[in-house]
Amino acid sequence: MPWHNQTGITGKLLLPDYMTNYNAPFEIHVHGQVVLRAEVKLEQLQESLKPLWKYAGARTFGEGAVSTYEDEPGIKFDSDEHLLQMCWTVAGTDDFRQVLDEVCMNLNELASAGAAIEVTFYDADFDEEDQASGAQSRDDFIMLFVGPDPAAIMQVQRDLLVQDVVNMMERHFDGAELGGVVVEIDKLFAHRFDELVSSLEIGKPPRGSGGHGGSGHGGGRKPRHLH
Q1: Long-range contacts at 174-183 (CB < 8 A, ≥ 24 apart)
Q2: Residue 60 CB contacts under 8 Å (≥ 6 apart), including other chains
Q3: DSSP alpha helices (H): ranges in the chain?
Q4: Using one digit for the tens of pLDDT, what is the confidence trace for 120-150?
Q5: Contact call for residues 110 and 33 (beta carbons, < 8 A)
Q6: Global pTM value
Q7: In this structure, are residues 58 and 7 in contact, taking their beta carbons and an 8 Å threshold?
Q8: What angle do CA 25, 27, 33 make, to 5 degrees?
């Protein structure tokens, strides 16, 4: 079954028996990398990611780690670099969000630093004719964050926000003029962290799901990651 994305590049869609779901309304792409603690073993990672590969209908991690698309590396564990890399697509529905919550909580236990994970829901029924007619798709995009503690997670959120704001404002201002903007962003995150500690929520996942980049429906489609 061929696929065609907005870049004009055509590839081959791989649908193993355990991943075939022609009625799924979305193709869901998970993308990101997480630096893991040095002592984390493959068996621990497999168990933490079990909600993902079980959702795909796989019997083993090896089966489930393979992406729907052959040009995507899927889910990989680099034991030398202690790194989890994900560029993985699965067919599914909105209930996949519950799987993401569980996986993020599991990865918090294994991560050695904060990390961001991009998740894109592509409307499987939306095609080029719909786009040409001006119809809106059900595409959605969220950014999730994992880390060993709230401070590490907030650091990643802060860095991504600074990057976004500076990139946008550099269209109008010299980068050297934006130091004050960065200082104000740091104040906002410092205040959020202080509130988190004072409210005794240090053991709960901080706000941030979909925080960077937000989420949205319709409009221009976000291109699928290509490798």
Answers
A1: none
A2: 53
A3: 42-48, 50-55, 61-64, 96-108, 128-132, 150-169, 179-198
A4: 999 888 766 656 566 677 889 999 999 999 8
A5: no
A6: 0.72
A7: no
A8: 145
